[in-house]
Design goal:
By secondary structure, the chain is of the alpha/beta class. The chain has 3 domains: 95 residues, Cobalt-precorrin-4 Transmethylase, domain 1 (3-Layer(aba) Sandwich); 82 residues, Rossmann fold (3-Layer(aba) Sandwich), CATH 3.40.50; 92 residues, 4-hydroxy-3-methylbut-2-enyl diphosphate reductase, catalytic domain (Cobalt-precorrin-4 Transmethylase, domain 1, 3-Layer(aba) Sandwich), CATH 3.40.1010. Helix content is 40%, strand content 19%. The protein is built from 10 helices and 12 strands. Strand 2, helix 2 and strand 3 form a beta-alpha-beta unit. It starts with a strand and ends with a helix.
């Protein structure tokens, strides 16, 4: 069996930057806190916790004087203000591409547009982007969500950075007949698009596809969906321990890709385990 590794897989720029910032914080302070997991990968977060970077779920869990990292997914101005009032020291690890989406949403709102955020309603990034409009933005996951919305004449769209380009195109297609003016900020991360395209190409050429990354990671889940849509058997795993021999039995070529929050060592472990299974 042959293993075909998608070279665009693994840490993206924003995640690599955040992990470096976390290492520097731990080296300087010997510990710290993140408000929510720094990235959506349990294995990587667990390693950071072992080194002293604890995870707080709410602002109330923080103590005055603590050094707090803002996660890669970003947060909104209301939450940032609450953190400042809490008396903590902030280290902003927000991905620069997420920060751009936040700025676009805030500017559109200031210019009088009704802002729609293409994203997942329960995802911290999408919620943070919406918070930059004072909570006025509406998060939509698909064109079907437009039903029942009272749309104004001037509408603007921004995207959660891990969205699919075809999802944005579909939303714009359905919005155009409904509004007089439509502004669109394509804030989908270029690395996300390249990763999706490369994974799609490999999935079309192999017998089995393995996608590595957190089950609660939006971009990894989307990668698995894209690969599965080709008809190639696709398995979304978090660690090598989840691999099953039956998945690769009789396969001549096995594709491997990984989400933006998946560390290199996890990818290496999966490849090594596939080798043990005969790949």
């Amino acid at each position: 069996m042959e293993i075909v590794l998608v070279t665009e897989g693994g840490f993206c720029f924003g995640v690599r930057r955040a992990m470096k910032m976390a290492e520097e914080l731990l080296a300087e302070h010997g510990g710290g806190v993140t408000l929510g997991p720094l990235i959506h990968n349990r294995e990587a977060v667990s390693r950071l916790q072992e080194q002293g970077l604890r995870v707080a779920e709410t602002v109330e869990d923080l103590k005055p004087g603590e050094v707090v990292m803002l996660r890669t997914h970003g947060t909104g101005p209301i939450t940032t203000r609450e953190l400042t009032e809490r008396g903590v020291t902030l280290v902003d690890a927000t991905c620069p591409f997420v920060a751009r989406a936040q700025r676009e949403a805030a500017q559109y709102h200031a210019d009088g547009y009704q802002v729609l955020v293409l994203g997942e309603a329960d995802h911290p990034e999408a919620r943070g982007i919406a918070e930059h409009t004072g909570g006025a933005a509406t998060i939509v996951e698909a064109p079907a969500d437009l039903a029942g919305l009272e749309l104004r004449k001037q509408v603007a769209v921004v995207c959660q950075t891990t969205q699919r380009l075809d999802a944005l195109q579909a939303l714009v297609h359905d919005l155009l007949p409904l509004v007089s003016e439509l502004r669109v900020a394509n804030t989908i991360c270029d690395a996300t698009t390249k990763r999706q395209e490369a994974s799609l190409q490999v999935a079309r050429e192999v017998d089995v596809m393995v996608v590595i990354g957190g089950k609660h990671s939006a971009n990894t889940t989307r990668l698995a969906q894209i690969c599965a849509e080709t008809g190639t058997p696709t398995h979304h795993i978090e660690t090598a321990a989840e691999l099953e021999a039956d998945w690769v039995q009789g396969a001549a070529r096995i594709g491997v890709t990984a989400g933006a929050s998946t560390p290199d060592w996890l990818i290496s472990e999966v490849v090594a385990r596939l080798g043990e299974l005969g790949a």
